[in-house]
Amino acid sequence: MSQSAPVLQGLWEYVKSGQEDVLRSPYLPASFAFLAHVLLCAPFLTLDALGSVCLRVRSWRMTAGSGPPPSLSRWLECFCRVLYKYVTVVLPVTALFNTLINLKLPDVAPSCWQLCVEVVACLLLFDMLFFMWHYVMHRVSWLYRNIHQMHHQHHTPFALAAQDCSSAELLSLLLLSLSSAWMVGCHPLSEALFHLINTWLAVEDHCGYDLPWALHRLLPCLGGAPHHHAHHSLQTINYAPLFTHWDQLFGTYRPVNE
Questions:
Q1: How many domains, the chain?
Q2: What residue stretches are annotated with the Fatty acid hydroxylase domain (predicted)?
Q3: Is a pLDDT exceeding 70 seen at residue 4?
Q4: Hey, CA dihedral for 182, 21, 197, 8, is it positive or negative?
Q5: Digit-coded pLDDT (tens) for 142-188
Protein backbone atom coordinates (compact mmCIF):
# COMPACT_ATOMS: atom_id res chain seq x y z
CA MET A 1 0.00 0.00 0.00
CA SER A 2 1.51 3.32 -1.05
CA GLN A 3 1.90 6.21 1.38
CA SER A 4 -0.62 8.22 -0.65
CA ALA A 5 -3.32 5.58 -0.22
CA PRO A 6 -6.39 6.65 1.79
CA VAL A 7 -6.43 5.85 5.49
CA LEU A 8 -9.39 3.56 4.90
CA GLN A 9 -7.68 1.53 2.16
CA GLY A 10 -6.69 -1.29 4.51
CA LEU A 11 -10.25 -1.59 5.80
CA TRP A 12 -11.67 -1.58 2.28
CA GLU A 13 -9.23 -4.25 1.08
CA TYR A 14 -10.10 -6.38 4.13
CA VAL A 15 -13.83 -6.03 3.43
CA LYS A 16 -13.37 -6.86 -0.26
CA SER A 17 -11.00 -9.79 0.30
CA GLY A 18 -12.89 -12.94 -0.60
CA GLN A 19 -16.23 -11.18 -0.11
CA GLU A 20 -16.90 -9.67 -3.53
CA ASP A 21 -19.74 -12.09 -4.29
CA VAL A 22 -21.43 -11.12 -1.00
CA LEU A 23 -20.91 -7.39 -1.60
CA ARG A 24 -22.35 -7.68 -5.11
CA SER A 25 -25.34 -9.75 -3.99
CA PRO A 26 -28.65 -8.04 -4.81
CA TYR A 27 -30.00 -9.46 -1.54
CA LEU A 28 -27.41 -7.70 0.62
CA PRO A 29 -29.11 -4.28 1.09
CA ALA A 30 -32.41 -5.68 2.42
CA SER A 31 -30.64 -8.27 4.58
CA PHE A 32 -28.28 -5.62 5.94
CA ALA A 33 -31.19 -3.23 6.62
CA PHE A 34 -33.18 -5.83 8.55
CA LEU A 35 -30.25 -7.13 10.62
CA ALA A 36 -29.00 -3.61 11.38
CA HIS A 37 -32.48 -2.56 12.49
CA VAL A 38 -32.91 -5.54 14.81
CA LEU A 39 -29.43 -5.26 16.33
CA LEU A 40 -29.70 -1.50 16.90
CA CYS A 41 -33.04 -2.05 18.63
CA ALA A 42 -31.45 -4.43 21.16
CA PRO A 43 -30.30 -1.69 23.62
CA PHE A 44 -33.87 -0.36 23.78
CA LEU A 45 -35.28 -3.83 24.35
CA THR A 46 -32.96 -3.96 27.36
CA LEU A 47 -34.22 -0.55 28.53
CA ASP A 48 -37.83 -1.68 28.16
CA ALA A 49 -37.08 -4.80 30.21
CA LEU A 50 -35.37 -2.71 32.91
CA GLY A 51 -38.19 -0.15 32.80
CA SER A 52 -40.64 -2.67 34.21
CA VAL A 53 -38.59 -2.90 37.39
CA CYS A 54 -36.49 0.28 37.52
CA LEU A 55 -38.20 3.62 38.16
CA ARG A 56 -35.11 5.52 37.00
CA VAL A 57 -35.29 3.99 33.53
CA ARG A 58 -39.07 4.47 33.39
CA SER A 59 -38.63 8.16 34.22
CA TRP A 60 -36.77 8.60 30.92
CA ARG A 61 -39.83 7.47 28.96
CA MET A 62 -41.76 10.28 27.33
CA THR A 63 -44.95 8.68 28.60
CA ALA A 64 -43.62 7.97 32.08
CA GLY A 65 -47.02 8.13 33.72
CA SER A 66 -48.96 6.09 31.17
CA GLY A 67 -47.95 2.60 32.26
CA PRO A 68 -45.12 0.11 31.77
CA PRO A 69 -42.96 -0.13 28.63
CA PRO A 70 -44.02 -2.48 25.80
CA SER A 71 -43.93 -6.14 26.78
CA LEU A 72 -41.69 -8.82 25.29
CA SER A 73 -44.70 -10.34 23.54
CA ARG A 74 -45.41 -7.01 21.84
CA TRP A 75 -41.80 -6.86 20.69
CA LEU A 76 -42.05 -10.41 19.33
CA GLU A 77 -45.29 -9.71 17.45
CA CYS A 78 -43.72 -6.61 15.90
CA PHE A 79 -40.56 -8.55 14.96
CA CYS A 80 -42.63 -11.22 13.16
CA ARG A 81 -44.62 -8.62 11.22
CA VAL A 82 -41.49 -6.78 10.05
CA LEU A 83 -39.68 -10.02 9.14
CA TYR A 84 -42.67 -11.24 7.10
CA LYS A 85 -42.77 -8.01 5.09
CA TYR A 86 -39.04 -8.12 4.41
CA VAL A 87 -39.18 -11.72 3.17
CA THR A 88 -42.33 -11.37 1.04
CA VAL A 89 -41.94 -7.88 -0.46
CA VAL A 90 -38.83 -5.89 0.45
CA LEU A 91 -36.20 -8.53 -0.31
CA PRO A 92 -37.38 -9.45 -3.85
CA VAL A 93 -38.13 -5.88 -4.95
CA THR A 94 -34.86 -4.39 -3.68
CA ALA A 95 -33.00 -7.33 -5.23
CA LEU A 96 -34.46 -6.31 -8.59
CA PHE A 97 -33.54 -2.67 -7.94
CA ASN A 98 -29.93 -3.57 -7.16
CA THR A 99 -29.69 -5.86 -10.17
CA LEU A 100 -30.64 -2.92 -12.40
CA ILE A 101 -28.09 -0.63 -10.70
CA ASN A 102 -25.25 -3.11 -11.37
CA LEU A 103 -23.03 -2.18 -8.41
CA LYS A 104 -19.33 -1.69 -9.13
CA LEU A 105 -16.72 -2.15 -6.42
CA PRO A 106 -13.91 0.41 -6.73
CA ASP A 107 -10.32 -0.56 -6.00
CA VAL A 108 -9.59 2.55 -3.94
CA ALA A 109 -11.21 3.40 -0.62
CA PRO A 110 -12.65 6.88 -0.02
CA SER A 111 -10.67 9.43 1.91
CA CYS A 112 -11.98 10.26 5.38
CA TRP A 113 -13.16 13.62 4.05
CA GLN A 114 -14.97 11.98 1.11
CA LEU A 115 -16.60 9.48 3.48
CA CYS A 116 -17.92 12.27 5.75
CA VAL A 117 -19.16 14.43 2.87
CA GLU A 118 -20.95 11.53 1.20
CA VAL A 119 -22.61 10.35 4.42
CA VAL A 120 -23.83 13.86 5.32
CA ALA A 121 -25.05 14.41 1.75
CA CYS A 122 -27.00 11.14 1.86
CA LEU A 123 -28.57 12.00 5.22
CA LEU A 124 -29.66 15.43 3.97
CA LEU A 125 -31.02 14.05 0.70
CA PHE A 126 -32.90 11.21 2.38
CA ASP A 127 -34.33 13.64 4.94
CA MET A 128 -35.66 15.85 2.15
CA LEU A 129 -37.10 12.96 0.10
CA PHE A 130 -38.79 11.33 3.06
CA PHE A 131 -40.14 14.64 4.35
CA MET A 132 -41.92 15.14 1.01
CA TRP A 133 -43.19 11.55 0.86
CA HIS A 134 -44.30 11.59 4.50
CA TYR A 135 -46.12 14.91 4.06
CA VAL A 136 -47.92 13.63 0.96
CA MET A 137 -48.97 10.42 2.74
CA HIS A 138 -50.63 12.50 5.45
CA ARG A 139 -52.26 14.95 3.05
CA VAL A 140 -53.67 12.41 0.54
CA SER A 141 -56.30 10.43 2.38
CA TRP A 142 -56.05 7.35 0.13
CA LEU A 143 -52.30 7.11 0.71
CA TYR A 144 -52.76 7.55 4.44
CA ARG A 145 -55.43 4.86 4.72
CA ASN A 146 -53.73 2.32 2.49
CA ILE A 147 -50.04 2.91 3.14
CA HIS A 148 -49.24 5.00 6.21
CA GLN A 149 -52.03 4.44 8.73
CA MET A 150 -50.64 1.10 9.87
CA HIS A 151 -47.52 2.82 11.21
CA HIS A 152 -49.68 5.13 13.32
CA GLN A 153 -51.23 2.24 15.20
CA HIS A 154 -48.36 3.00 17.59
CA HIS A 155 -49.53 6.16 19.36
CA THR A 156 -46.64 5.55 21.75
CA PRO A 157 -43.90 4.09 19.52
CA PHE A 158 -41.04 1.85 20.59
CA ALA A 159 -37.74 1.13 18.85
CA LEU A 160 -38.69 -1.89 16.74
CA ALA A 161 -41.85 -0.09 15.56
CA ALA A 162 -39.69 2.21 13.41
CA GLN A 163 -40.19 -0.33 10.60
CA ASP A 164 -43.59 -1.63 11.66
CA CYS A 165 -45.60 -0.27 8.77
CA SER A 166 -47.28 -1.48 5.60
CA SER A 167 -45.21 -3.44 3.08
CA ALA A 168 -45.51 -0.54 0.63
CA GLU A 169 -44.21 2.00 3.13
CA LEU A 170 -41.40 -0.26 4.34
CA LEU A 171 -40.34 -0.81 0.73
CA SER A 172 -40.50 2.93 0.02
CA LEU A 173 -38.23 3.67 3.00
CA LEU A 174 -35.53 1.31 1.76
CA LEU A 175 -35.84 2.45 -1.85
CA LEU A 176 -35.53 6.10 -0.77
CA SER A 177 -32.37 5.33 1.21
CA LEU A 178 -30.87 3.26 -1.64
CA SER A 179 -31.79 5.97 -4.16
CA SER A 180 -30.19 8.65 -1.97
CA ALA A 181 -26.90 6.77 -1.94
CA TRP A 182 -27.15 6.15 -5.69
CA MET A 183 -27.88 9.82 -6.49
CA VAL A 184 -24.98 11.01 -4.33
CA GLY A 185 -22.70 8.44 -6.01
CA CYS A 186 -21.44 7.00 -2.75
CA HIS A 187 -18.51 4.72 -2.28
CA PRO A 188 -19.81 1.39 -0.80
CA LEU A 189 -18.11 2.18 2.53
CA SER A 190 -19.86 5.54 2.69
CA GLU A 191 -23.16 3.92 1.77
CA ALA A 192 -22.84 1.29 4.51
CA LEU A 193 -22.08 3.97 7.13
CA PHE A 194 -25.00 6.09 5.89
CA HIS A 195 -27.41 3.16 6.24
CA LEU A 196 -26.15 2.41 9.75
CA ILE A 197 -26.49 6.02 10.92
CA ASN A 198 -29.88 6.40 9.23
CA THR A 199 -31.15 3.21 10.86
CA TRP A 200 -29.88 4.26 14.28
CA LEU A 201 -31.56 7.66 14.01
CA ALA A 202 -34.86 6.03 12.97
CA VAL A 203 -34.66 3.60 15.90
CA GLU A 204 -33.81 6.40 18.33
CA ASP A 205 -36.68 8.51 16.96
CA HIS A 206 -39.15 5.75 17.80
CA CYS A 207 -37.56 4.47 21.01
CA GLY A 208 -40.00 6.26 23.34
CA TYR A 209 -37.18 7.56 25.56
CA ASP A 210 -35.80 11.07 25.97
CA LEU A 211 -32.38 9.90 27.09
CA PRO A 212 -29.80 12.23 28.66
CA TRP A 213 -27.18 11.11 26.09
CA ALA A 214 -29.46 11.12 23.00
CA LEU A 215 -27.99 12.54 19.81
CA HIS A 216 -30.54 15.36 19.53
CA ARG A 217 -29.14 16.78 22.79
CA LEU A 218 -25.66 16.92 21.22
CA LEU A 219 -26.82 18.11 17.77
CA PRO A 220 -29.75 20.56 18.01
CA CYS A 221 -30.35 20.26 14.25
CA LEU A 222 -31.73 16.76 14.89
CA GLY A 223 -35.33 16.31 15.98
CA GLY A 224 -34.84 13.13 17.98
CA ALA A 225 -37.39 11.04 19.84
CA PRO A 226 -39.36 13.95 21.39
CA HIS A 227 -39.78 15.56 17.94
CA HIS A 228 -41.09 12.34 16.38
CA HIS A 229 -43.15 11.37 19.41
CA ALA A 230 -45.04 14.65 18.96
CA HIS A 231 -45.74 13.64 15.36
CA HIS A 232 -47.22 10.31 16.46
CA SER A 233 -49.37 12.14 19.00
CA LEU A 234 -50.72 14.94 16.79
CA GLN A 235 -49.94 13.69 13.23
CA THR A 236 -50.02 17.18 11.66
CA ILE A 237 -46.54 18.34 12.68
CA ASN A 238 -42.86 17.30 12.56
CA TYR A 239 -42.84 15.25 9.36
CA ALA A 240 -39.08 15.18 8.75
CA PRO A 241 -37.38 11.96 9.90
CA LEU A 242 -33.98 13.35 10.89
CA PHE A 243 -33.51 17.11 10.90
CA THR A 244 -35.87 19.97 11.73
CA HIS A 245 -35.13 22.51 8.95
CA TRP A 246 -37.76 21.26 6.46
CA ASP A 247 -40.51 21.41 9.07
CA GLN A 248 -39.39 24.89 10.04
CA LEU A 249 -39.37 26.05 6.39
CA PHE A 250 -42.85 24.66 5.69
CA GLY A 251 -44.44 25.71 8.98
CA THR A 252 -45.01 22.20 10.27
CA TYR A 253 -42.44 22.37 13.05
CA ARG A 254 -43.63 22.21 16.64
CA PRO A 255 -41.02 22.56 19.41
CA VAL A 256 -41.35 19.78 21.95
CA ASN A 257 -41.85 22.15 24.89
CA GLU A 258 -44.97 23.70 23.37
A1: 1
A2: 119-252
A3: no
A4: negative
A5: 999 999 999 998 778 889 999 999 999 999 999 999 999 999 999 99
